[in-house]
Known about the structure:
By secondary structure, the chain is an alpha/beta fold. The chain has helices at residues 12-25, 34-41, 47-59, 65-86, 95-102, 127-139, 173-181, 201-206, and strands at residues 111-115, 146-147, 161-169, 191-200, 213-215, 219-221.
Amino acid sequence: MPFHVPDKHYSLYSDVERRFRGMLQRGVITGTEESTLDRWLDNFQSEEELYFAARVLERLIFRSQGMIESSIDQMLHCVLPAYLRQRDLYPHPSIEAFLEALGESIPSYPLRFVGVDGNRAFDTGKSGVVIIRHYKRHAGINKAITCRPDSLSPPPEGVRCLVFVDDMLGTGKQFKDFVSDNKLAEIQGVHMVYCPLVAFEKGIEKLQIFPWLTVLPIEVLDKRHQFFSASAKSPT
């Protein structure tokens, strides 16, 4: 049966395009330009194709620079310190002392930040590498306490906790492949925590097969955030 745009949604494309351009112009959405949006929209011509394009834009989960930095602050000020305290890995008298230690070049520091999928020195296009760059720039994380995945067998001497950073945990497949590629399950005597900025519930459930791994996302999304989920206002 051919698909036709529902009558009540004929204005959807113009509404979504206008709203998306406005967010680009105000800097709410970063990392792309209007010219890139124009080239992408040129791929859609018919009413049905434009409706599909509008739905894609409407469902995008975007993160501005400010939102990423806010998530990193939440991770370093609250989420990660709480985890470290519970495991007696937090010798600092205050959050300020912890953040100061993260900014110092201390090769013997027992914590290492690792970008997911950044397993080569020049693999700069991977999401984990981009996020760990945000950690360095915004929070002042010193290079001495970051580590590439291909340097984890074995981990640096004295390291007691590995913090894997990433932008998003989706289905869990990418991180499962990452675990396999870097033989993380073979590492002994080290706490491992995976800290994506955003995670889907199903992805978190899939990673429960690794009993040695703790998943600590900043934001958790459920099935309502998936592209093909039904609308709460019009579920049919």
